[in-house]
Write a structure and sequence with these properties.
The complex is a heterodimer of chains A (464) and B (186). Chain A is an alpha/beta fold and 464 residues long. Chain A has helices at residues 17-21, 47-51, 63-72, 92-100, 114-117, 131-141, 149-170, 183-192, 206-215, 217-222, 240-244, 263-272, 294-297, 304-318, 359-367, 401-418, 428-438, 444-450; strands at 5-7, 27-28, 36-37, 86-88, 105-110, 145-146, 177-178, 229-235, 259-262, 335-343, 346-354, 376-380. Chain B is of the alpha+beta class and 186 residues long. A two-stranded antiparallel ribbon of chain B has the order 1-10. A two-stranded antiparallel sheet of chain B has the order 2-3. In chain B, a hairpin with a 4-residue loop joins strand 2 and strand 3 (61-64). The radius of gyration of chain B is 19 Å and the shape is globular. The chains are: A alpha/beta (464), B alpha+beta (186). The A-B interface holds A 13-17, 20, 31-32, 53-55, 57-60, 63, 66, 80-82, 120-126, 264, 267-268, 393-400, 404 and B 17-21, 23-25, 27-29, 36-50, 53-54, 56, 61, 114, 116-117, 150, 153-154, 156.
Amino acid sequence: MMRVVEIDKNICTGCRECAKVCPAYAIEGEQGQPQTINVDKCVMCGQCVQKCKSYVSIVSHGYEAYEKVKKERGIPDSVTEPLFAAHNVTHIEEVKKALADPTKVVMASAAPAVRTGLAEEFGYKLGTLSDGKMAAAFRALGFDYIYDVNFAADLTIMEEGSELIERVTTGKGKLPMFTSCCPAWVTFCERNYPELTDHLSSCKSPQQMQGAVQKTFGAEINGLKKKDIFNVSVMPCTCKEYECSREEMKASGERDIDVVITTRELAWLIKDAGIDFKKLKDEKYDNPLGDFTGAAEIFGVTGGVMEAALRTGYELITKKSIPAVEIPAVRGGEGFRSADIKVGDLTLRVGVVSGLKHVVQVMEDLKAGKMKDYHFIEVMTCPVGCVSGGGQPKLLMDTDKELAYKNRTGITYKMDESLPQRKSHDNPSIKKIYKDYLKAPLGEKSHHLLHTHYVKGRAKTIND
Amino acid sequence: MTENMSCYVLCDPNKCTGCKACELACFAEHNKENNDVAYTVGTVTIPVTPKLYLTKTEKYCMPVQCKHCEDAPCLNACKKHAIYRDENKQVIVDQSKCIGCKDCVMACPFGAISILPVSDNGAVLLQKDKECVKAASKCDLCTGIEGGPACVRVCPNEALRLVDLNEEQLAKSIATANSLYDSRLS
C-alpha cells in the first residue's frame, strides 16, 4: 500500500481550509471533525500540505506528541520545525541509507523549481536562486553524480516538440496534444477522462526521462552497472514519488527513479548532515546529464513548457531562428489562457492551464468538440506551476503567497535570461546524446526510454 | 464618554473554521527578530508559542486572546511588575521580568494567558536544571509590527477584527443620535 499525502486525524481540527484548495475534491469530512482523503480522487498534488496550519502544539498536544509524530512519520530527529496535520510521506531515510551504502552509486537530480525555493528554508528571501549552492550541497551530502532534471527537460522538448510537429503536420495522433509532465494532471486525466488520454503527449515527464537516461546512457558513459545506480530525484512536487513508482516506469530494466524527496526534505537532509548552507560556495553540475538551457529552467513556471516547446518547435519547423526567444503571450498566472503563435506559415493555437480546477472546463469543451482549433495545451496542477508545488517550502503566513509566487517565477525567468543557451536544441549535451546514443527524436531508443503509455480509468491511486 | 481605551482583537465564531492560521502567524511575526523565523516553516527551530489560543468545543471554535482590560487583573496581580500598560493603553508582558509564577494566568478571567517556553537566538532558553525558561505569553496586539495584528491579516475567513471602541462607540452614539433626531422630525 503506497501512501503519498495524508491527514493526521489526531492533529486535524476539521477547518476544511484544505478542501477549499483541493482541485480534486478529495478531502472529505464534517466541518469541525478530522478530515480524510479519498484516495480514489486525490491526485497527490500536496496543495493541502501547503495550506494546512493545524500544527502539533506544545500547548494543546504536549511535547511528547511532537516527538511521537516526528518518529511516526520517519522525520529525522534533527528537524525542529512545526509539523502539521496534512503532510506528505517522507522518503528521506531511504536517501540517507543509499548515501551510506558503499555499494551504491547515488545520483542526484533536481527539478527547475527546487532551486527557486530551497534557500527560503535557510532564511533567504522568497524566491532566491540557489542553483550553485544546491550543487554544492549535493556534493557535500556525498552524492556521486550531481546531474539535473533540467537536462531531461531539454530532452522532453526535443521529444515533445517533435511529437507535436508530427501530430500537426502528418495528422498522426490526436489534437490538441496535452503536456504530460505534471503527474497529478496525468492521473486526473486517466481517471476522469479515460476516453481522452490519447490527447496526452506520450512523453514521460523530465523526472522519468532523467531516471531512464541516468541508468542507461549514464551507466554506459561512467562505466557503471545500472543495478548499482541509485537515482534520487528532488522535486517541488508531492506526486512525483507516485509517478516514479508506477509499474511502467522501469525503462532501464530497474526502477528508473529510486526515490523522490521534496524541496523541503532536501532542506532537512542538508540540515541533518550539519551542512551550513549559507557558507556553501557555488558549484557546477556534472556533465553531460547536468547540462541545460534556459528553456529547461522555465519548466518550473506556468507556460514554461509551452514557451520552451515553441522556441524549439519554431526552429524545427521553419529551419529559421525564432525572432523573439521570449514569448510573453503564454506567460501568466492561474486560470486558462490561449494564444495564436505564428510559426512560419502555420498558426499554432495554444492553451495554458494553471491550476487543475481550470482544466475541467477545457476537457468538457474538448468532449463537446469545441477545442478543435487548438493544437497544444499545457496543464499544470499547482496554482502558478511547479514553483508553487506541494513540495515547495511552506509559508508560515499565506499573506506571503503572492510574493513567493511572484519572486520564484521572476527568478526563473531571470535565470533563463542569464543562460548562454535558451533553446533546448542548442544544448550541446542534448546534441551529443542524440548523436551518440538516442539517434533521433521519436526514434526506437527514444520510444523505449522516453515515452510511455497511459492507463485508462486508472482507478486506485494508492494500491496500484 | 470614553476616551483612550485600549484596542483588542475580536473573533466572530460564525466565521472561524479553527484553522490555526492566526496562531501560526502570531508566532511567526513575534519570532522574526530574535529567533530567525523567516517566511517558511523550515526556518523555525523552536516550539510554536502563540499569543492567542484556538479554543474548540463540540459546537464552535474561536481563538481566545487578551482583551487588554482597562482595569487589568493580570497587571494588578503581577508581583514582578512584568506586566505594564504601554503608551497606547495596551497591556504588555515583559518576558524578561516574568518568572512564570502564574498569578496572571489565575487572575485573567478569559484564559487569554499561557505560560510558555521562552526562546532566543533560535533556541529555547534553559534554566540551571535544564528545564526550559517559561514566561507569560499573551496578545500584545503586534505592537511595533508593521501592518498591525498578524492574526487579523492572515485569517482566511475574515473572522478576526481589531476593535477600537473609541471609534466604534462614537460611531454608534452618532447613529443612535441620528435615528432619535430623525424620529423626532417625523
